[in-house]
What does this fold into?
Amino acid sequence: MDWESLPDLFWFFYYIVLLITLGTAIFHLVQKKGKIISMLTIFFTVTTPIVSFMNSIGRDSGVNELEHFMMNLTQGSLWAIYSMTGYLMIMVFWILFSRQIFSADDS
It folds into this structure.
């Protein structure tokens, strides 16, 4: 079988962002800043890629991971909704973290 995949550069940045997110969330948890959001971010940062990977294994030939994800999301697949929730949670964490950093610079 000949499967399509996203470019290697995409995967490099994807995993770098996840590792930085995980490290930042752990640091925040140790610093006791935003415990709940940090714990949720750690949970989703670890589980979302696993769920996405496990469900992209059985995709059709000629379909890359993003196309498979979007197709399942439009069909209302539970794993795709979970993954989207995880990615949104990570984005919310970074927005809140950025606001905290920039508001500290203004002081």
